[in-house]
Amino acid sequence: MSQLSSAHRGQPDQSGLWVQADFLRLLASQPDGDAVAYAVANGPCARFQASSCAIFLCDDMRRHLTLVGEHGFVSEALDRYQLVPVDVEVPVARAMRTGEELYLRGSAGDEEFPLTRAFFATEPGSRERDWIHLPLGYLGTGIGTLVVAVPGNLTWEWSERSHLTAVAAAVSLWSRIHQLGLEAAVERAQRRGRGGSIVLTRRQEQVLEGIRQGKANKVIARDLGFSMSTVKAEVQAILALLGAVDRHDAVIRAGAAGIAIAAEPGVSERTGPRRPPRSPQRR
Q: How far apart are alpha carbons 258 and 199 in whole angstroms?
């Protein structure tokens, strides 16, 4: 993962321009979502002592928001928020639908949005945090939400809000670069196939098999020995390649397209465990 310049990280006054420049250079290098979330918290939002960041992007059908990157959350907190329906009354969906910033003070998120109580969970003994939900947009259309957690009771003046708006705009541009990369991957996969058919890589087949079994990303990552960011990136690529709106739809489309889902290493889908080849016999 590309790193922000350590000499400037967390020093907003004398080196703010350096941090912003490093942040924009990172976004232009096509990083994954986790790298962007890390960079937001430790780069342009370090001036607010940001502790956590999450990025949700909307699918083409505008039905769901998908978690594409996160940093600093309680490990179990995001399990149930990998896919959020756009029409549900939760902060990430409201911010995207309305195009308005949403600031939640500490436990107010629990009270106003009980469905997302686990999302606002903090580590035992940690300070109470405020939650900022920033709408992401492209060409006047909402495309997602950027969530940033900061220490509670900060004062938000015009300059601070403008700074956050600029960060959200930069992440919006990254999301477009990210989408163009996925579209390019689709074209490459189609060229690898015959007659425009889709051909998945071995790793994508393995991830798709985990999706078919109903496994969460962290379980797929553990079983295959991949990082979470790798699994998230492959899930996004699979959805784009198949034109699927969600994980369930991806499995259906893969079956309809005749895409064989990878079996476990060393196991044949039809005949079971493979036998080692016989050594040649001497005559």
A: 10
Rounded (10°) CA dihedral 28, 77, 223, 178: -20
Between strands 83-85 and 102-104, the pairing is unpaired
Count Cα neighbours of 38 within 13 Å in the Cβ-side half-sphere: 11
Return d(Cα 207, Cα 210) in angstroms, integer: 5
Cα angle 183, 59, 234 (rounded to 5 degrees) comes to 55
What structural domains does the chain harbor? Answer: 12-179 (3.30.450.40), 193-272 (1.10.10.10)
Strands (E), the chain: 52-58, 64-71, 83-85, 102-104, 129-138, 141-151, 267-268, 272-273
The pLDDT tens digits of the residues spanning 230-264 come to 888 888 888 888 878 778 888 888 888 777 555 44
Q: Mark residue 99 as left, alpha or beta (left: phi above 0; alpha: psi -120 to 50; beta: remaining).
A: left
Q: How far apart, in whole angstroms, are the C-alpha atoms of residue 213 and residue 258? A: 18
Q: How confident is the model at residue 93 (pLDDT cuts 50, 70, 90)?
A: very high
Question: Could you tell me the CA-to-CA distances from 27 to 37, 140, 147, 243 in Å, in that order?
Answer: 11, 21, 17, 25
**Number of CB atoms found within 10 A of residue 121's CB:** 15
Distance CA 8, CA 253 (A): 47
Closest CA to 45 of 68, 67, 25, 71: 71
Alpha-carbon separation of residue 63 from 5, 85, 175 (angstroms): 38, 6, 17
- The SS3 of residue 80 is helix
Instruction: Say yes or no to pLDDT of 64 above 70.
Output: yes
C-alpha to C-alpha distance for 51 and 42, rounded to whole angstroms: 8
Q: What is the mean pLDDT of the chain?
A: 76
